[in-house]
Amino acid sequence: MANQNEIQNITLVDENGDETLYEILFTFHSDEYSKDYILLVPEGVEDDEEVDIQAYIFSPDENGDATEEDLIQIEDDKEWDMVEEVLNTFLDDDNNFE
């Protein structure tokens, strides 16, 4: 079993073939949409640095792991609103950054 405080990473490849390493910020399940979501930040950013957070639908395996091929773009606006609401709640909780 992985340590909860252990940072997990995933590498994403953009349309130009460039690889970028991301840290998994957190994952969550939505009962409303019956889907799992993963939120990512670029690896190595400072706590006070402004970054674009990447969010995807994902299908983890039985161990809870996923690869880039398991990530699906979120295309529904209402689904995006729900993900942003969960993210804002996460960001507002200072206990998530200790």
| SS class | alpha+beta
Order of helices and strands: EEEEEH
Instruction: Determine the N-to-C terminus distance.
Output: 22 Å
Share in helix: 10-25%
Show the helix and strand layout.
Elements: E1 9-13, E2 19-30, E3 35-42, E4 54-58, E5 71-72, H1 77-92
Antiparallel strand pairs: 1-2, 2-3, 3-4, 4-5
Textual characterization of the structure:
It is a single chain. This protein is an alpha+beta fold and 98 residues long. It has one helix spanning 77-92; strands spanning 9-13, 19-30, 35-42, 54-58, 71-72. The chain has a 5-stranded antiparallel sheet with strand order 1-2-3-4-5, with no helix packed on it. The longest helix has 16 residues, at 77-92. It is globular, with a radius of gyration of 14 Å. The model has no long low-confidence stretch (mean pLDDT 84).
Descriptive keywords:
98 residues, 1 helix, 16% helix
Summarize the structure.
This protein has about 100 residues and is an alpha+beta fold. The protein has one helix and five strands.
